[in-house]
User: Which sequence fits this backbone?
């Protein structure tokens, strides 16, 4: 772990080198493999936290997991090759490409969420004006799938009121209800879930 820490704190890198430094830190962390489980996830979280630390991100919204998992074989080949041969160029280009693709996807998702939120807001206001509130709208975007109890607590309303809200949102097609058992159900913002899970799966490196 000391090698990874020393790289993070190495001031010889200028701010323009932050993306290169992130790639090097990631490689060193994955090479150390310090934990019994969860090293991959932890390494990818470190990526985004480092970019926040360096001021390249305001909030941690850029996650490389989708890209790395999509090209997992190539990822492990390059990790191994870099360790064995000390040849960094291909690995760093792979990581930079991942940052580029993930950045584009993240922008696409954010724009999609903004547009979907406006669409669902307009629909709620026009068809369900009695129950519409910005807090209700925000909640079904903060929780793409939710339950009566969750909404009840979030909005500080009784359970039957929360259930009425969710059932009415289902009736106009914003939510889809999935029964878990006789007494419990999930309410899913299907369009939001599709947006979050279906961005550009067929890109090539």
Assistant:
């Amino acid at each position: 772990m000391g090698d990874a820490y020393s790289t993070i704190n190495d001031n010889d890198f200028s701010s323009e080198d932050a993306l290169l430094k992130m790639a090097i830190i990631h490689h060193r962390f994955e090479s150390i493999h310090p934990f019994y489980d969860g090293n991959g996830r932890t390494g990818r979280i470190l990526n985004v936290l480092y970019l926040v630390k360096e001021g390249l991100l305001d909030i941690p919204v850029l996650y490389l997991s989708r890209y790395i998992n999509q090209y997992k074989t190539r990822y492990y080949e390059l990790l191994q090759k870099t360790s064995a041969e000390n040849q960094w160029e291909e690995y760093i280009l792979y990581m930079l490409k991942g940052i580029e693709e993930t950045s584009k996807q993240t922008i696409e998702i954010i724009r999609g969420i903004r547009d979907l939120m406006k669409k669902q807001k307009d629909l709620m206001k026009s068809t369900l004006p009695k129950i519409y509130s910005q807090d209700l709208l925000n909640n079904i975007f903060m929780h793409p799938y939710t339950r009566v109890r969750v909404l009840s607590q979030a909005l500080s309303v009784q359970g039957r009121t929360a259930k009425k809200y969710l059932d009415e949102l289902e009736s106009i097609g914003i939510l889809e209800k999935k029964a878990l058992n006789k007494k419990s159900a999930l309410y899913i913002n299907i369009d939001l879930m599709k947006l979050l899970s279906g961005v550009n799966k067929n890109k090539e490196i």
